[in-house]
């Protein structure tokens, strides 16, 4: 039992580390983008934001439900790191064929009080429950009562059943705790990691991607995505429709030749700009413009969920019932709309360029985006 646990954890660690070490990002291939990125070109450029992954890759061959092969995981985004601090937030969707829990209270209250977790469709319940255990074990809310603080975890999902034994429920409490405890600032592993391990975008291998922008006023905005959507013929990079030119690397599945078309995306936007919840809602509504730049359109089968938050501190006053807030003038918000669109587009392409070809259940193979051919088609180095 102990040996099996050690082997599983080692597999998770090595998969995450190797995926990160080998990842090459879209800019590294010369793909042109608008706007100025932050130091890490990641959501963690927004001070205080932390991200962690738990990646589960094991087994090969024929699907045996409950046994594998397993290609899945969890990604955790902590808006203020390991310290509890409510922040203004908002939420929206493009097409709602999916799930992101906890968003009703975010829309009602205007606050985000939880870590955000990405996983696969059938692991939402397990991740939701594990998040509550983590918050209690880590005293994320310092409640003075035995019953503690009621929590409404934020868990988003996309479907990885093309590659993963999704009915096997392989995401366990320990994986969620690992992702949350591992969350840190700085560079972020992308591609076949965390919740994005088994995901597919425009019928190429995809996963987790991130990017950031520094606005003209000096605000930082970052995006992180779990990309699992799109038809091959719609794939667009740097304004060029490349899908029809890359039609020879379609997903290979001996049992279902038509499988591989992804249909969902999760996007989280973070910023240090002082925005109120209704302004953050406006950022959420610009996310689809970034998705559209890559060829996504919000299909009927798609679950497209977007959450935006501001890390600006809400100040206390001598009167415990009152708080002091600062808001950006609406006339100055266009720079953040542009940053949202640009960071979303680049985060998706980073998810694609960092991901590597993967074989999953029943010999299904999802190919990596052929970057040499992409750069040749775009005329970049």
Description:
The strands form six sheets. A six-stranded mixed beta sheet has the order 4-3-14-13-10-9. The protein starts with a helix and ends with a helix. Helix content is 25%, strand content 25%. The protein has one domain (2-378): L-amino peptidase D-ALA esterase/amidase (4-Layer Sandwich). The chain is globular, with a radius of gyration of 20 Å. The chain contains eight helices and 18 strands. Helix 6 crosses helix 7. By secondary structure, the chain is an alpha+beta fold.
Question: Layout of SSEs?
Answer:
Elements: H1 2-22, E1 50-58, E2 70-82, E3 87-96, H2 103-109, E4 111-112, E5 116-120, H3 124-137, E6 154-158, H4 173-182, E7 200-201, E8 204-205, E9 208-214, E10 220-230, E11 236-237, E12 240-241, E13 262-271, H5 277-284, H6 287-294, E14 303-310, E15 315-316, E16 323-324, H7 334-354, E17 358-359, E18 365-366, H8 371-378
Parallel strand pairs: 5-6, 13-14
Antiparallel strand pairs: 1-2, 2-5, 3-4, 3-14, 7-8, 9-10, 10-13, 11-12, 15-16, 17-18
Strand order of the largest sheet: 4-3-14-13-10-9
- Give a count of the beta strands, DSSP E runs of length 2 or more: 18
In what range is the share of β-strand residues?
25-35%
Helix content: 25-40%
Q: How many discrete structural domains?
A: 1
CATH C-level: Alpha Beta
Q: Spans of 5+ residues with little confidence (pLDDT < 50)?
A: 1-22
């Amino acid at each position: 039992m102990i040996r099996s646990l050690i082997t599983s954890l080692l597999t998770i660690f090595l998969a995450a580390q190797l995926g990160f070490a080998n990842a090459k990002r879209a800019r590294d291939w010369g793909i042109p983008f608008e706007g100025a990125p932050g130091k890490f070109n990641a959501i963690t450029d927004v001070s205080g934001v932390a991200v962690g992954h738990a990646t589960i890759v094991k087994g090969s061959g024929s699907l045996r439900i409950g046994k594998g092969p397993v290609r899945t995981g969890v990604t955790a985004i902590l808006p203020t790191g390991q310290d509890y601090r409510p922040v203004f937030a908002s939420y929206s969707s493009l097409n709602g064929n999916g799930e992101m829990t906890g968003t009703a209270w975010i829309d009602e209250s205007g606050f985000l009080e939880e870590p955000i977790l990405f996983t696969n469709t059938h692991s939402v319940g397990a991740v939701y429950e594990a998040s509550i255990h983590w918050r209690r074990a880590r005293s994320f809310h310092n409640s003075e009562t035995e019953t503690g603080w009621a929590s409404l975890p934020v868990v988003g999902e996309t479907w990885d059943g093309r590659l993963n034994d999704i009915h096997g429920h392989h995401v366990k409490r320990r994986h969620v705790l690992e992702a949350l405890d591992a969350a840190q600032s700085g560079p972020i592993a992308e591609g076949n990691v965390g919740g994005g391990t088994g995901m597919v975008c425009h019928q190429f291998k995809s996963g987790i991607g991130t990017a950031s922008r520094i606005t003209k006023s000096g605000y930082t905005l970052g995006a992180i995505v779990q990309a699992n959507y799109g038809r091959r013929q719609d794939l667009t990079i740097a304004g060029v429709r490349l899908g029809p030119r890359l039609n020879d690397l379609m997903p290979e599945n001996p049992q279902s030749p038509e499988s591989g078309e992804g249909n969902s995306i999760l996007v989280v936007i973070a910023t240090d700009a002082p925005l109120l919840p209704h302004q953050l809602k406006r950022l959420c509504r610009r996310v689809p413009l970034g998705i559209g730049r890559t060829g996504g359109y919000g299909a009927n089968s798609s679950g497209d969920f977007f959450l935006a938050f501001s890390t600006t501190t809400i100040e206390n006053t001598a009167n415990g019932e009152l708080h002091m807030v600062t808001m950006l003038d609406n006339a100055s918000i266009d720079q953040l709309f542009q940053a949202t669109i640009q960071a979303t587009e680049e985060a998706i392409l980073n998810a694609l360029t960092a991901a590597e070809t993967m074989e999953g259940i029943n010999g299904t193979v999802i190919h990596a985006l052929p970057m040499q051919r992409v750069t040749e088609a775009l005329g970049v180095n």
